[in-house]
Specification:
By secondary structure, this protein is mainly α. The chain is about 75% helix and about 0% strand. It is a multi-pass membrane protein.
Length: about 450
């Protein structure tokens, strides 16, 4: 009886939030965060890791998308069953222990969320530097104004934030699609996508290892699909809209990334591509735009990059504070974080604190080093979240699951193994960053013990 009551409580769609996000809004949140300036240069890293084999590079993009899609489907099952603000912090709490969910949220709160916001806020005016001539001090001022402005805007409700996200999503896709479509149909190069010669040279095992290494690079371009789950309580019909938005967004972006990179090879001769990368010029997409549209091409690329980063910042500011809110509601974080604005129904305190931390990170010098601290632990928590699917199916078999991940359990096993491989690969490639990556969760344990003790003391008084 107690278990049934718990299941009903978790599955309830009653919420203090305003349900303002539809399917397109969900797609815009995911796509707005995922599609950034990396679309113009990350293809170079993928190609480089496949020993400049175009066929294997395109395969890596497709497989990277498929991996992200199936991991996203695991989040879709969890999100549809437990449509709660906070996303994976809720799932990790239910599957393992409140401490595990707290640590995932704590890493996002201290470094992950604010670090990403700060990095993008700095990158946006930096992209305008050739046009505006803005200096380093001006870039930081611009970044701070941007963070403050978008935070204040998000404080006026999720509907306004979602509308801005929808507009920025469409606005950045226009120049990207224009460049891609014209390149596909007007390009005169027929790229060699055969992989036989590479397999003969490297062997089957060597080729698989090469593709796996390239997939890791492509996965960074797919980062961001987890954020919709953080605002599940603000999705109009989370049991239906959340899985649908995840499938459309990740599936559509996989097609976009693959076709965009193929379009590059339709315009740039193979020798030019190799020469550019070897000389350290990774912006193949930018070069394609310049060749097709001349000076207008540079404007198109700059416009797309600026809008893409703007949309990513807004999406992160919209989604991340809901995680901190969920931690507070669970009873293991600052009480003020558990309060919603009486009129606009947004977690105002988490929004403001995230902005303050982001501004502090903007003012610090080694921003890149700070943001890498959480990369290792993020992969660990994603792996644990995917593994939460079979754990919760066994632990809570009576929980209503309006959506279930495809090809279970094979798909879940494969995704978990891939994440384990990525964790091991990261540890071997950069053990220092991996070890330092544990510092933030270690600090988080101290915070958890403090809040847990406080929670128990308050419970005893009652």
């Amino acid at each position: 009886m107690k278990n049934q009551q718990h299941v009903q409580e978790l599955s309830s769609e009653k919420t203090e939030f305003k349900r303002e996000i539809g399917v397109f809004g969900g797609v815009s949140i995911i796509g707005g965060i995922m599609i950034g300036s990396g679309i113009f240069y990350l293809g170079s890293y993928v190609l480089q890791r496949t020993n400049y084999n175009i066929g294997l590079a395109l395969l890596a993009w497709i497989l990277g998308g498929v991996i992200s899609l199936f991991a996203g489907l695991c989040y879709a099952e969890l999100g549809a069953a437990m449509p709660k603000a906070g996303g994976r912090t809720v799932y990790l709490t239910e599957a393992y222990h409140p401490c595990v969910g707290f640590l995932a949220g704590f890493c996002d709160w201290l470094i992950g969320g604010p670090g990403s916001v700060a990095a993008l806020a700095i990158a946006l005016p930096t992209a305008l530097k050739p046009v505006t001539g803005i200096n380093d001090a001006g870039i930081k001022v611009f970044a701070i104004v941007l963070i403050v402005g978008l935070t204040v805007y998000n404080c006026y409700g999720v509907k306004l934030a979602s509308i801005l996200q929808n507009i920025s999503m469409v606005a950045k896709l226009i120049p990207i699609l224009l460049i891609m479509v014209v390149a596909l149909f007007c390009g005169k190069v027929t790229p060699d996508i055969s992989i036989g010669q590479q397999v003969a040279t490297s062997g089957t095992t060597g080729t698989i290892s090469m593709v796996a290494f390239a997939i890791v690079a492509s996965l960074w371009a797919y980062e961001g699909w987890t954020n919709l789950n953080s605002v599940a309580e603000e999705v109009k019909n989370p049991k239906k809209d959340l899985p649908l938005a995840i499938i459309i967004a990740i599936g559509g972006i996989t097609i976009l990334y693959t076709l965009f990179n193929y379009a590059i090879y339709r315009v740039l001769p193979y020798e030019t591509v190799v020469s550019m990368i070897e000389q350290g010029d990774f912006y193949l997409g930018t070069e394609v735009a310049k060749l097709i549209f001349g000076n207008v091409g540079s404007i198109l690329v700059t416009t797309a990059m600026v809008i893409a980063m703007f949309g990513s910042i807004n999406g992160l500011i919209l989604a991340q504070p809901r995680t901190y809110y969920a931690m507070a509601v669970e009873g293991h974080f600052f009480k003020s974080f558990a309060k919603l604005h009486p009129k606009y129904k947004v977690p105002t305190a988490p929004l403001v604190v995230q902005a303050i931390i982001s501004i502090i990170l903007v003012l610090m010098r080694d921003l890149d080093q700070l943001t890498t601290l959480v990369v290792f632990s993020t992969m660990l928590f994603n792996c644990l979240t995917v593994l939460a699917v079979p754990i919760l199916r066994k632990k809570m078999p009576e929980m209503p699951r309006p959506y279930k991940v495809w090809f279970y359990p094979v798909s879940v096993i494969i995704i978990v193994l891939i994440y384990i491989g990525l964790v091991i690969s990261t540890f071997l490639d950069d053990p220092t960053s991996a070890i330092i990556g544990f510092i933030v969760p270690a600090i988080g344990i101290v915070f958890y013990l403090y809040f847990d003790k406080k929670k128990r003391q308050e419970g005893n008084r009652i």
